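This week, work through this protein record:
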Amino acid sequence: MQFMVIETFRNQDAKSIYRRLKTTGRMMPEGLKFVSSYVAADLSRCFQLMECDDICLLQQWVAQWADLMSCEIVPVVTGKETAAALDGQL
């Protein structure tokens, strides 16, 4: 399953996030897969697409970064998959 993780950097401190990322990596538990990420132009947030079959893996990962950011986790599917699911109702 795919999840959009919306990270809000505490105090808009992107430098602390990237400093830790540079020294420790993403610190993801096995079974959690990073797909892609996008950072807001004002450096306040990051949007990461992640994949896993066990939501607990996301919880473990988020807990490791909780001192530097808060996270909202949204289960997502592609627009194509949504269109197929709704096809009989259109």
